[in-house]
Design goal:
By secondary structure, the protein is α/β, with parallel strands linked by helices. The chain has 16 helices and 13 strands.
């Protein structure tokens, strides 16, 4: 069968065989399938979809296209975590050391920010000296020594996904549940975890805008993991408003330190505890949720989680003094404040616009490889549901000599709506999916 026949088969709504999917993935890597044919099949998949078996085969083929990290020589159950990304989402930076302090091995390969959402690697690199580009052996050594490591994904992990994503990005084929799920899971399966906790965000500041779409992606990822023999749980979480108060790289590291000390914003602390507890159960450290929650809370209250974070920073080349001296982190030289234009209740704090405002200041990038300013960003001073007075400070803008300030101010002002009464605020946790 020629590859044209494969395209036609999917165009007409028929499932592809494993051999046909393998041919597709190998062909885009060795250039035996031209971009125009690969793009045609991608569009057919967007329109016709893929069944769970096809999606799992596509994921497996992308995993096999490169290296798969072998963590079998590290004792214990390795539990990974992935978030689909959102504004102010710094959960992994607190979660990894908190779970490791409870006895879980946490291998975490993360990405950089692109567009309005920040990247975990960019936030960690605001710590002086912190290295995210570890070799596989350095990654494994950090896991043995600390119990947690957060690193960048190497080019050898699922290289077919990189090629496919580049094609999807320029052919209008990004929005496809099977393609989104297989893209994410090919990298997560290649990182070597035995179990996974998945955070699928939905709302104004997320890539998935509604719960139905987020639920479908979450279910697809759990199915892929289950078929691959990996236990996975997915949570659907709200991203209408930013998570926590800080938006921006060094600003978010400061907030992570506050949370590891037992403070920090309540929504961030609650999310860390919930996810870490599930990782404790999946890692076999505790058998039930209540005991796992208690273990996580003790790890944070006792200072063990903060100590583990300091060890992780030092092990990856960073300056551990930032734990006690956050002033060593980059700080923007200038401040500006958005004030309430009237008295009332904050009814809206749109995460997407605030993410774009931080990006305008220089905290994010528009193209891969573009430099960013680790110091700039926003601090939200009042949250949804808070009652405010006219003229009260709502958002503090940390900028560098006015770069992007006018745009950021306009976006921040558009993001906030004040009403006489607040509309109902939906909970941060909207749903949960576990393998049957």
């Amino acid at each position: 069968m020629s590859f044209v026949d494969v395209i036609v088969r999917k165009r007409d709504g028929h499932p592809l065989s494993r051999a046909q999917i393998d041919e597709f993935v190998s062909g885009i890597l060795d250039d035996t399938i031209p971009d125009y044919q690969a793009s045609a099949l991608l569009m057919a998949i967007v329109i016709r979809g893929m069944n769970p078996e096809e999606t799992s085969w596509l994921t497996d083929a992308m995993v096999r296209s490169g290296e798969r990290v072998d963590l079998s020589d590290i004792p214990g159950i390795k539990v990974g975590k992935h978030s689909t990304g959102g504004v102010g989402d710094k959960v992994s930076i607190v979660l990894a050391p908190a779970a490791a302090a409870c006895g879980v091995i946490v291998p975490k390969m993360s990405g950089r920010g692109l567009g309005h959402t920040g990247g975990t690697l960019d936030k960690l690199e605001s710590i002086p000296g912190f290295r995210v580009n570890l070799s596989t052996e350095e990654f494994k050594a950090a896991l043995r020594d600390v119990g947690a490591a957060i690193v960048g994904q190497t080019a050898s992990l699922a290289p077919a996904d990189k090629v496919l994503y580049a094609l999807r990005d320029v052919t209008g084929t990004v929005e496809s549940i099977p393609l989104v799920a297989s893209s994410i899971m090919s990298k997560k399966l290649a990182e070597g975890s035995d179990a996974l906790v998945l955070d699928v965000k939905c709302g104004d500041g997320a890539f998935m805008k509604n719960e139905a779409e987020a639920h479908a992606v979450a279910a697809a990822m759990v199915t892929i993991a289950t078929r691959a023999g990996i236990r996975a749980e997915a949570f659907i979480t709200d991203m209408e408003a930013p998570l926590g108060c800080a938006i921006g790289n060094a600003l978010e590291i400061r907030e992570c330190l506050q949370t590891l000390r037992g403070g920090g914003p309540p929504d961030l602390a609650a999310m860390v505890t919930r996810f870490a507890a599930r990782m404790v159960v999946l890692g076999g450290v505790e058998q039930d949720q209540a005991a796992a929650v208690a273990r996580v809370e003790t790890a944070i209250a006792s200072g063990r989680a903060l100590e583990t974070f300091a060890r992780m920073v030092q092990r990856q080349g960073g300056d551990p003094r930032i734990v006690d001296r956050p002033d060593l982190l980059a700080a923007a030289p200038s401040r500006d404040v958005i004030h309430a234009n009237r008295a009332g209740v904050i009814d809206r704090m749109r995460a997407g616009l605030l993410g774009r405002a931080s990006h305008a200041l220089g905290a994010g990038r528009s193209e891969v490889g573009e430099s960013i300013d680790h110091a700039v960003g926003l601090v939200v001073l009042a949250r949804r549901g808070d009652r405010v007075e006219a003229g009260q400070p709502l958002i503090e803008i940390h900028h560098r000599d006015g770069r992007g300030l006018e745009t950021a101010r306009a976006l921040c002002e558009a993001a906030v709506a004040i009403a006489d009464q607040a509309s109902p605020i939906r909970p941060k946790f909207l749903g949960e999916i576990r393998a049957s």
